[in-house]
Amino acid sequence: MDEDECRFGLGHQFLLLIRNVPAHTLPRLPGEGSGWRRKIMVTGEVVAVPLADMSTAAINDVRKFDYFCDAICDVYAGVQPVEPDDRVFDAEFKAVALSQGVLASIASPGHMADRGALQLRRRPEESLFLNLSEFSAYGASHVGEDWRVAAGRPFLLDNARPFHLDFERERRMRLYSLRLDRQCLGLSIDQSVIAKINHAIATTELGRSLELQMRLMCRSMGAGEIMLAGTMSRPVTALLARIAENVAAGPSENSCLDLATIKAVARQHLSVADFRLEDLARLLRCSARTVQSRFAAEGTTFGRWQLEARLDLVRDRLEHSTFSGRTIEAIALSAGFRDASHFHRAFKKRFGISPRQARH
């Protein structure tokens, strides 16, 4: 069995299954120095390589944020987190080299992150990041557009271009990122291609398949099943490449006419109180009249369907133990309701019982 060795800054030795991957191609880790070694066993096909497992729990509060930034800087190359003003930065960071890139996870207080002109100039880097925020929606400015990315939806970032990410400061975030070589998509990537891929992820059946597969991959990593996550990275990358191929080929004639797809996209925005028919049509890249006609064929309207979908979402959450610690009003707000009295009336009209009765 051939062996190759390189340095490893976390003070552990791992036996790793890997094929044709020189040691110098693996990401350099925070704190790597001459005193540590990482052993790589070359056999079979790539499965998974643990790279980092970091927590700020034992770090002095004043140094936690800087320690976190140092830990993530080699995977999130040239990305600058912005420290929140009002809380201790308790964070965890893990990274695993998979057969299809590097999969990393961050659990931390919600914060902003930037890759601006200064970072692009100081550290040019051309990886792609396929991100998934497990629990919370977030804002993103990238490739000339402002996005509201739903929780659980993959979103593609081009690290060769500037971006700004804004996570809710009121809650903790858990972000998974699959870092990929841009050549994995097999086509020339410009600003418009990234935007079209993200629109396709949000609006197509292939995008839905990518979302489901990436969620499974991320949950496997979260459960410590990194070999399983490594296996799942292959179909994730294959689905992303297929979406890119379809984008390059141009839109199909009826790409936005499938009502199931329209509803799937709209469901991802139920938490956005002011999400309108026009916003949905813009995401689908078709007219509001076209969208409304698809709902009319089912005997309803977008507004009526949206209200019923939000009420169904609230009832599901009221009956689920995960939300037992949250108030009824907070659950309603998370489903896009602004007015409490309107919510209570609509809920009782649809289900014949009050929200409090539904909870019990």
UniProtKB/TrEMBL annotation:
Name of the featured protein: Helix-turn-helix transcriptional regulator
HTH araC/xylS-type domain residues: 260-360
PROSITE patterns: HTH_ARAC_FAMILY_1, HTH_ARAC_FAMILY_2
Pfam families in UniProt: HTH_18
Superkingdom field: Bacteria
Protein keywords: DNA-binding, Transcription, Transcription regulation
InterPro entries: Homeodomain-like_sf (IPR009057), HTH_AraC (IPR018060), HTH_AraC-typ_CS (IPR018062), Tscrpt_reg_AraC-type_HTH (IPR020449)
